């Protein structure tokens, strides 16, 4: 079975969040299961691309609106990611360093999708499944069904995975001319709220759509930034599949990025060594529980609550714990978090930015990971924490609700809370301090967490079953 994945992100080529992690892992596990899975990305002028060899696979030109663009398909030559990786290069359009936030972003991602379809038509490539990820590739299900330019692809099943339904790829009808050969009698399939909505078009036109957790599928029907009615109507077309993690990359027994490797049986001593050096790096004391946050400093992640929560906890619990923050995002939140450094020396550390290696060291050295997310379609950070024996403290939403069982349950291994306020998170951290005070219980919880299977082996099988059902039908 030949499955082609299209995405704006793929770790380690280009990553902003969980989308990159998923697209960098799922195809590898599909290939290990016997499928021929590949990934197609826009070309990015980034370290991975500069340091690896790519062969010219195909070259052509395409008309987008009134302009003609030359494009190239480049293929990574060594298959080092465990799957075939293709980059679409357009000089001046798909050749930039950053992934998002350019003023012509609509043109970027439309050109990416059109070049992909133009390539596989002209090269007579017929995948068994075209798997689209988020709105950046959301026009493809419509185009293969309702554009005369790509009618030879109409019988190919399309799957769309929604990693974050808040971002939908909106643009005005004045740009409909970018889409070649479309049947304007089907224009309603592109429209939502009087504009072209790429995500809505994908949900309407794909054969099946998936969300990255069962709970997120349910949440989209009442919280999806204006698409609630659409998800209610199309609910039977959707399936929730929890993301996995790449257990080869995230493996405390063999992780080259951490100071001391450890297993479930040696987690107490291994984490102690990692914590010691991590605390030394940030000027923290090692004999107190270490509570961390890793992620984007944005409202979706509840990061705006962190400055007051940290101050509240250090005051209420008389400095009996330490905090460490890794992330970047909203400038005001970044500023507030930086200002805490002078107020809470020896109890608080912060690194503003993105550092993959540091994130591994934090998971290995931390005792608790807090995730006060307002929206969390699946969440991977809690799964990384579980893998590294770090207890997650999470708001009960989306995939966090599906993957973290509270310690009040006999099968529990994490801490959950419903009240997403400063007091709610402060109280949850108070529960964490009570757990930490019982070293025997901490050891037991770590062993239980680290024995859980959140690998892509399990999730990939669910995708394979989905693909087979579409081909069979």
UniProtKB/TrEMBL annotation:
It comes from the Bacteria. Keywords: Glycogen biosynthesis, Glycosyltransferase, Transferase. One of its GO terms (molecular function) is alpha-1,4-glucan glucosyltransferase (ADP-glucose donor) activity. It catalyses: [(1->4)-alpha-D-glucosyl](n) + ADP-alpha-D-glucose = [(1->4)-alpha-D-glucosyl](n+1) + ADP + H(+). Residues 2-232 form the Starch synthase catalytic domain. GO terms for biological process: glycogen biosynthetic process. ADP-alpha-D-glucose binds at residue 15. It is an enzyme of class 2 (transferase). Its EC number is 2.4.1.21. Residues 281-436 form the Glycosyl transferase family domain. CDD domains: GT5_Glycogen_synthase_DULL1-like. SUPFAM superfamilies: UDP-Glycosyltransferase/glycogen phosphorylase (SSF53756). InterPro entries: Glyco_trans_1, GS/SS, Starch_synth_cat_dom. Pathway: Glycan biosynthesis; glycogen biosynthesis. Synthesizes alpha-1,4-glucan chains using ADP-glucose. PANTHER family: ALPHA AMYLASE DOMAIN-CONTAINING PROTEIN, GRANULE-BOUND STARCH SYNTHASE 1, CHLOROPLASTIC/AMYLOPLASTIC. Belongs to the glycosyltransferase 1 family. Bacterial/plant glycogen synthase subfamily. This is Glycogen synthase. The gene is glgA.
